[in-house]
Amino acid sequence: MDPMTFICVTQFVHGLAYGLLLFLVAAGLSMIFGMMDILNLAHAYIFMLAAYLGYTMTGLLNFWAALLLAPIGVALLGMLIERFMLRKIHPLGHIPELVLTIGIGLILLEFVKWIWGTQSLMLQPPEILSGLLSIGVFRYPVYRVFIIGFSIAVMILMGLLFYKTRFGTIVRAATADAGMVGALGINVPLVYTLFFGFGTWLAGLAGVVVAPFLSVFPGLADQIGFDAFVVVVLGGLGSMSGAFIAAILIGLLNSFGIQFLPTLAPLLTFGLMAVVLSIKPTGLLGERQ
Amino acid sequence: MIFKHRKVLYRVTFVLSVAAVFMLGPLGGTAPGADSSFDPAAMSDMSDFDPNNFQQPEGDTIKLGYLQIMSGAAAGNGELFWPVVTWVAHDINKRGGIMVDGKKKKIEILKGDTQGKPAAARKETERLCLEENVDLLWGTSGSHTAKAIADVAEEYKVPFLNCLSLSDELMNEKNFNRYTFRTLSNTTQWNMALSYYFSKRPETKFSILCQDYMYGHAMADAFKKYLNKYKPEAEIVSEDYHKLWLKDFAPYMTKIMAANPDILYTADWLPDGDNLINQARSMGVNLPIANIYITNPDTLASVGVEGTRNMIFCYSWMSGDTPQTKAQKKLMKEWHEQWKTWEAPYDSLLYIWPDFVVGQTISDTYWLFDVIQRTGTLDPEKIIKVWEDDVYKAIQGVRTMRAADHQAVFDMYVGEATYPTREVYEGAPYSEGYAGVHKVIKIPQKYCTPPVPEGLKDRVE
Amino acid sequence: MTGILETRDLCHDFNGLKVLTHIQFSVQPGERHAIIGPNGAGKTTFFNLVTGVYTPASGRILFKDVDVTKAKPYRLTRMGLGRSFQITSIFQRQTPFQNIRLAILSKNRIRFNLFVRVDRMNAINEQTNEILQEIQLADEAHLPTSTLSYGKQRSLDLGMALATAPDLLLFDEPTAGMSRDESHSAVELIRKLTEGKTMVIVEHDMDVVFSLADRITVLHRGEILATGTPYEIQENDAVKKAYLGESEV
Amino acid sequence: MIARITPPAWTRWVLPGIAAAILLGYPLVFGTVYTNIFIHFAIFAVFAASLNMLVSYTGLLSFGHALFFGGGAYATALALENIPGMGLFPAIFTGGLAGAAFALIVSPLLNRVRDTAFALLTLALGQLAYMACIKLRDITHGEDGVGGFPIPDLSIPGVVSVSMVPAQNFYYLAIVILGICLLLMWFLTKTPFGSIMIGIRDNPQRVDFLGFNIPLTKCLIFTLSGFFAGIAGSVYALFNNLVTPDGVFHIMTSFTPIMMVYVGGIGTFAGPIAGSGLMTIIEEIATRYTTQLVLFNGILLVLVVMFFRTGFVGLYLLLKQKLFEKESSR
User: Fold this and answer.
1) FRET pair for B105, CA 20 to 30 Å: which of B146, B189, C41, C115?
2) In this structure, are B245 and B293 located in the same domain?
């Protein structure tokens, strides 16, 4: 195989892995916005909290236990936030929600600093996921393959949940007409709380998956939070498939940009966003204004 | 002890100084040619030192303004150097303080939170200078915040020890002010040292990967410039700048591997540096990585022995199995013993040794107070007079404060990481679970001394 | 013959669903024209096309002999078209006085004045008060609009359309949601206010239509079924069939 | 009817007079540190008030207002650095113009979106400015920023020339300029244009049907808001004699005025001013006695949103009303 092909294939896989990781981080954000019309600015901080929880639980138990437990932990937190805070102020429009979630984010930041300190913590992937996988001439880190597989699995899980379960049907119906669903005797507020919990659960999954990939430190939320917003904005507010396409696009643009347009690479994401938003202000697949 | 005997201004007469050198030299104090030196024998018993519970002295004190980032996501910076300043203060206070203006005074430390923002740094410095009447300023991470502090220091005439910001521009013609002294190696010193080091090694192919902003470009430019000077046959096979706080280094690694260099050069700091080495190693990129800031023992331990083997470190302070002075050995051992008793957050591996930046800042802080001791007063003009052209035999190496641009010049050290390191400190392995610096080479001052900026040459004759 | 408002071959669809087909419609100056038709006939869509909310799929719209097919609402308003809304569209958080004043500002072409306090513009305030008198809201002029009764809010909506001194007024179901009495007085008010003016009204209530309009167009399934005087329409077989016949089938 | 006793005309000037006296005497009484804290408060009061033009008067939440603030700050700093003999007022005006120009440039894009999409688009634009500022090292000196530029004297040729370096002198300049900005913004809300702005906030559709060109109107609002934010940034640049991307383009620079508007009381003119004051006091207390500034801000935001939605001004009005009711019941 000639070197250029080798490089292009490798960069493609890099882009895929990174894009899927971004999707995992942004999925919960996009979903909550799409179904509940809440832009949760604390999302990245919840994600960071999960990364810290993942770090500690991996030390106490193991990575798989962390992957199971940490997301549940933050999902519970998310449900509390929805039940006791967001629900009360939702009727007042968007501005209070945004301000509230900024406030919650700042408190979470101080919380992780208080518990885990200010230093950066680093976690290695579990034995089975470390090392390199060899396929022909390609050698690729197992953990990155795991990220690809895991993200796809989560996506399929989400699809099944929304289109094959009763919960999914109710949620979709509630998005279209909450009043009607409520009239059918379904506890819509409870559905919303569970749904918000599900969104934060996804942030939790992303947090634990990221922990062996990026060093965990109090700036992690800022580091990755903005990218999650870019994915959501670019994909179209509230559109899951849009977010997916946007994440993959950003991933590929990132890796091929670095390879072929190195000086512009850091600005390419913005360039893409500027172009898309100028042509279609609602994002790739967004309909909501 | 050495401090006690020097009540009079040191450099009043040449005779007196020569006499002092001869009298105190054999006691392990001042080296020939140095104006003063760090005396390990004078160090107090530090067994009661606890950075979590620093005892501020009362009454008439020497006030040191400690300016760092203490809130927000980067608060780790403020935490990291707290043991440094309190250690030195505790030591000196236990000795009874410093004789200034005819009175023994102890050191009090006042915190100022820069939040990492110039405006906040300015405000806090102003508050410390005007309300708390601090005598000295100490700081800080981030060249732009250091600039804000230096401006205020000049305005209120308070000496400012800048031992943490390295931008060359900070002390150039435009930004120089008399009250600011920089003891950290600047961009040029760092890259001269590394380039000189590589001129003695066989490798010729280099890749550069730095952060895409002023600092990263300045470091890379200096490296290219001096590598070309010291090793003209060297070749830069790839040169990339990644955005700050990059998440995925893989695309860069693929690119670098395709260029097939012998050495990867990076000036990244946290968290990029940590992520860079971790992701590089996980992808099977096992190149030697020449770096400045990937020195955090936490990170190195996490990357592990294999991953850290053959990393190349460069600093103005380095331990490992460098031939060490008595003072350095004593400080390393004493600190390490105390570290075992500290509680969170200072119980982490990060504080295990006073190495690299921690050692350097401890040394610089001791230097500051040595200068005060010799000045015998807190009058800033007199402090400047003593410090300019001062030659100080520090805990490790001799440091000279150039009068023209207030930049300290000294020998640098470059070391390669290996494992296991020879046991240097009885009973305490230097690095456990990662490759510590070893094969340390001293880069003599003359190979890593930057020129004095043109416009400042005539400042002091 | 050119009307003040004309549409030629006006067609519109929503994602392929045909709503209006080949509408040829014309209003003469001074005419009081009503558009009626069963639910879903396309009356409101027709209004939205004419007032620039939607751009038609094909066909042309002429207002005062100018092609306004693609004109935005504000441009039509400036050309002399006034509209009231089916769902009351007023500024709830402000007083009726402020509501009307905004319309008066527009009428006086004051759009980017940053230099004078609006309270001190006496001419504007006088004109505002005149309109408030006309729509019988002078007493409530400085109360919060949200506290007014529904009927009064409808009057305010109407007043805002009137205040811009339009040459053609479009009323979208002005009595929708009103009680019998309210409806009656609203009709009286409209009659009084629109004396001598050209207007087009969309209405369900036949009493209202027959008491206000001198010409009627019947829309049915996106097409014009008939146009004529109230008497002609009452006698029209096709209309009878559309309204009555279908319910019998 | 009983003839009402009108108080003499001069009484109208008592309160403003007292306020002016306090403002004039402030630096003499409180010294440099508090003088500078006051200047900081005033800068952010104007910055927050310029954002308030969008949030409270037009109903648009901008997450990227740092774009205009930073644009103004950099324009002033770069002008003073590169143009010899640049005067004080031209420099400040340059800052305002830069803020206005930035706003004008992005307004066609902003005009296409509303609500959350608007917030996110402005967030992205602000972030783009931050990145570009770091990337354009040759002009902006990257993260080190533009600093040490000459601060011109306030001079009327042949009459007087005052150095603006001493904190007290700068205080009077800042107070006058920022005070004028606040007055202008307040006046703006009272003009016909101000009525149209409020109309757009409450019911854009109706405003359109009343014959106002909304995109053009919004363009002008953005431009004006950008102008005042630019002036605030410009005074910030002069005040610190240093502008850096972290200082003026950082995302927190965009969030701070939002917090101020909200804490002070959304929908009121005094809100952002009260908010700026309140948050300055909190920052002062928090940094003086703790290292928990971020935590304090977080808790403050949550408390305000959950329990005092009307903010500080609303709370004040409520208290006033309560007191008044008590009096009348007596």
Assistant:
1) B146
2) yes
Interface of C with D in 70-109 (CB under 8 A): 72-74, 77-78, 83, 85, 89-94, 98, 101-103, 105-107
C-alpha span between B99 and B3 (Å, rounded): 9
**pLDDT at res. D70:** 97
* B301 and B369 fall within a common domain: no
Q: B214 and B145 share a domain?
A: no
H/E stretch holding D204 reads helix D204-209
**Residues 197 through 216 of chain D touching chain C, CB cutoff 8 Å:** 198-199, 202-203, 205-214
Domain hosting C7: range is 1-24+41-79
- pLDDT tops 90 at residue B188: yes
Angle at B168 between CA B167 and CA B174, to 5 degrees: 110
Cβ of residue D291 closer than 8 Å to a chain B Cβ:
yes
Residue C104 falls inside a structural domain = yes
Q: Kindly report, residue by residue over D245-293, the tens digit of the pLDDT.
A: 988 999 889 999 999 999 999 889 999 999 999 999 999 999 888 888 8
Does B461 reside within a domain?
no
Best residue in B214, B219, B221, B246 to probe D by mutation, most D CBs within 10 Å? B214
Residue with tokens 């006046």: D187
**3-class SS at C55?**
coil
Quote the pTM value. Answer: 0.90
Cβ-nearest to D141 among B113, B119, B214: B214
Query: How many Cβ pairs within 8 Å bridge chains C and D?
Result: 85
D113 in contact with chain A, both atoms CB, cutoff 8 A: yes
Is there a contact between B279 and A130 if contact means CB atoms under 8 Å apart? no
Please count the structural domains in chain C: 3
User: Is C107 domain-assigned?
Assistant: yes
Length of chain C in residues, anyone? 249
Query: Are residues C107 and C165 both part of a single domain?
Result: yes
Domains contained in chain D, number: 1
Residues B125 and B145 sit within 8 Å (Cβ to Cβ): no
Residue C116 in any domain: the answer is yes
Distances (CA, A) of D81 to B120, B122, B369, B385: 23, 20, 37, 32
Q: Is residue D111 part of a domain?
A: yes
Query: Which residue in chain B is spatially nearest to A7 when comparing CA positions?
Result: B254
CATH at B156: 3.40.50.2300
| Residue D47 zone, left/alpha/beta (φ > 0; ψ -120 to 50; rest) | alpha
Q: Is C33 inside a domain boundary?
A: no
Nearest chain D Cα to B119, which residue? D240
Q: Measure CB to CB from residue B144 to each of D36, D145, D287 and give the nearest one.
A: D145
Q: What is the pLDDT of residues A9-31, one digit of tens each?
A: 999 999 999 999 999 999 999 98
Distance in angstroms (rounded) separating the CA atoms of residues B347 and B298 = 12
Answer yes or no: is D125 within a domain.
yes
Residues B406 and B421 in one domain: no
User: Do B225 and B312 lie in a common domain?
Assistant: yes
Fold of A3-279: ABC transporter involved in vitamin B12 uptake, BtuC (1.10.3470)
Same domain, B253 and B283: yes
A-chain residue closest to D291, CA distance:
A110
Here the ipTM equals 0.88
Domain that holds residue B143: 10-186+357-410
Domain total of chain B:
2
Partners of chain D (3+ Cβ pairs below 8 A): A, B, C
Whether A and C touch, i.e. at least 3 CB pairs below 8 A, reads as no
Of D33, D131, D137, the CB nearest to B130: D33
Distance CA A29, CA A45 (A): 12
Distance of alpha carbon A152 from the chain centroid: 13
**Window 119-148 of C, Cβ < 8 Å to D:** 119, 121, 124
Does the beta carbon of D196 lie under 8 angstroms from any beta carbon of chain A? no
- Chains touching C, CB cut-off 8 Å, 3+ pairs: D
Does residue C71 sit in the same domain as residue C89? no
Percent of chain C with pLDDT over 90: 29
Distance CA C78, CA D211 (A): 5
Residue B289 covered by a domain: yes
